[in-house]
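Case study 2.
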Amino acid sequence: MALDIQLIEVQAPKVKRFLLDGSLDTETAPELEQAVMDVISTDVDLLVLDMKTLDFISSAGLRVVFMATKKMKAKNGRLAVANRQVQITKVFEIVKALPDLTIFKDDEEMDDYLAAMQEKFKSGDF
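Prediction:
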């Protein structure tokens, strides 16, 4: 699935906002990573990832979010994630609940689990 990344103009100085639409997965994560790195290299204090129309996130997508958080923190800035859909929120809850515990044998197994869980939440079968 594709990912559309739009840099949205924000009235506040030193604030940048990306609108993410589609799927943030192994194929699309490098594109977001590059866009994020380009913005982080500018004079930005707050970077917002707007996930209002993001349908899916994999472990590769999570890695980009965590990398961006770390890079923004290193420059005394912040990263915010806004407007998460229910299935995306559930992924972040799972990751937060298990910060130091590896329960998957590899990324493929984790992505399979995340995909099944997100589909369950999208369909309302939870």
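Residues 3-122 form a domain with the Transcription Regulator spoIIAA fold (CATH 3.30.750.24).
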